[in-house]
Structures are given as C-alpha cells and as structure tokens.
Design a protein that fits this description.
single chain, Rossmann fold, 16 helices, about 45% helix, disulfide bond, AB_hydrolase_3, hydrolase
Length: about 400
Amino acid sequence: ADMGAKLLCLFLASALVAYYIYTPMPEDFEEPWKVMLITAAFRAVAHLAEVVDQLGLMHHMEALKLISAIEYIAPMSDENVTVMDTEFSNVAVRLYLPRKLSDKLRRAVVYFHGGGWCVGQAGMKSYDHLTRWTSYRLNAVVVSVNYRLAPKYRFPVQFEDAYSVTKFFLQSSVLSQYGVDPDRVCVAGDSAGGNLAAAVAQQLLQDSEVKTKLKAQALLYPALQTLDLNLPSYQENENKPILPRLLMVKFWSEYFTSDSSLKEAMASNRHVPVESSHLFQFVNWSNLLPEELKKGYAYTSPAYGSSELAQKYPGFLDPRAAPLLASDAQLRGLPLTYILTCRHDVLRDDGVMYAGRLRAVGVPVMHDHAKDAFHGAMMFVSSPAELAVGHRLLNGYIGWLNENL
C-alpha cells in the first residue's frame, strides 16, 4: 500500500507539473515546447513574487527583480568589443566600444532595456548579448542605460534618467571623445525601453539646447499608451506568454504609484477622467488599426474614472509616459523609425497605431509585424532558451539599423 501511495503522489505531482507547463499555444508558434517551458518559468516566478508580496516579505516588483539579479553578468570585454560600466550625467550606463580600428567616425545606439520600468538591467545576460552583438555587428558605440526603477523611483525618474543620458551623449564634445558621427546616432529600446526611446525622441524635438538631431529611433514591441487597456490586442492576448494583461496593468500602475486604486481602475479600464476625453482620439483603435486587427471587436466608448486619480497621478496622462498622446504637430519632426510588433502581444496595437500616426504626418516608418511571435521573444537568443524566432527578430532589427543608421 505504501508503494501505491508513493506512486499516487508521483502521479499527482507529475500531473501538476504537466498542467503548469502545458499551455495551449497558437498553431503558428515555432518550437512550442520551448515556449511553454519559458512561459512556465516566468509564471512560476510571477506566482512566487505574488506569494512573497502577500506574506508581506517583499514588494512584488522587488521579488521579480531577483530574476535580473540571477541573470546579471559583470562587464566583460572580448576580442571585438570593450565593455565597461560608467556614468553619464550621474546615471549608470554600460558602454560597448568596438575594438576594430575605424578610419571614419562610428555610428552610435543609446539603448533602454525593457522590464516594465520595474525590473531588468543592462547587465542581464540577454541584454548584454543584444547590445554587445549590436556594437560588434554595426561597428557602433552602444550606450546601454541603467535608469532607476520602480517601486523605489516613479515616473518621471525613469524618463529623466533616459533623457539626461541621451542629452549628455549628444554633446559634440562627448560624441567626438568616442569617435561618433553626430549624424548617425539612434535611440532604441524594447517594451518599457521602447516607451522610453519614443518619449526621449519626442522630447528632443522640443529641446532647443540640443543641437545634434537623432538619425533614427528603433522601438521593439513598445508600450506607448495608458488610456485604453482594452484594445483588441489586450483582449486577444490577455493570457499569452511573458506579458499577460494583468502584469502589464501592474507595470503601468507601478510606474506611477503603489496605490492599488490606480491598478484596479486600470484593470477595469476606468481610469481616465472625463476632462481628458479629448485624448482618446489619439488611441481610438477603430480609426487607427487596420481592418484585420479590428475584426471580431466592437469599439465601445470608454467608461470614465475619477478626476481624483488623475489629479493624484497626472503621469498616466503625460506624453512622456504615453508617447501616443503627443499631438500630430509634436510627431512631425521625428526621425526615421523602426517599429517591431508581435501578433501575440498585449502591446501589439500600441506599436501598430504609432506606426500609422507617424506615417500620417510624413515620418518614414519601417513597421515589422511578426505574426508568429510573442512579447519579449527577442530576449531568447542566448542559450539555454534559444528561440529561432528570437534570432529572426534580432537579425531584422540589426539589419534595419545597418541599412539606415
């Protein structure tokens, strides 16, 4: 009987693990088992972080930060690239300088990592791989920015760190110190980092102190708006890998405050006060999305929230946090733009709408829409969780920079 009990326990444990790992995958995913394992690992960490938070041991986001701590690697130079940690304008950055001698000035990329403004860092293995590879492939100086994170720091700190590094780097004395061509500098970032890159590019247009113009911006599955968290992509991909809807809501709300009333209002999509209703035109997906992304969804006018929330946390209505809220006039002078969106991503429609709005005001846009990819897929290019789709997205991004920067 003892043996039977052990077998039963083993069977139940296996069933539980299988249930945990097995998630139905869209039929167009390559390597579905790998994606399932990655998803299960992320889900396990997210559940653990929630438990730790509910027990009052540690803030949910501080617990999630442990991932980036485990993934951290010290700055290591190799035969192609010199890597060092330093500070620009009192903000920590990781610098990648190509070793290959160059008779002409180099290109440069200022990169902002993702992680919902709460987690992640330039020294994570996946980001170090991405930025090192960028530096080597493009023979470019790469500045990877360690902006300060929530919950300790709230908006606009993340934006201000990103902005002050970029502004510092764009000074002609700094560019010449690193042998950078002032006509070939770009900002780039993924997810929350794509949000920061877009906001930095917009702000530079309004800053008369900055003489150097950006050549390009590259936004990889960026988060661009806080107003409507029920876009078709939010509904369709509510439980897709890496970034389920409620985690994105949590990231957005934590960017501004730990006050759970904002999180709850955002989760039910009732956070925008009626006096800000004029902003909805900038994110009205019934006008801004192509037909194939609208099918099966009916646009409903937003339910308005309390004015009090917006007065307490005005950040969520600020274009520096939500670049899609900039007016057409503010978008007009933006540089050449690359936008990557993934079909199975809550943030897909943010990127699609931004691409459309930029094109409409005459900004040259390359919009790369990956029909078989999910949020964050590009992070999985260094072992052990290598994904073929991650390599394809990375090569598309680097290839575009190589041709356009």
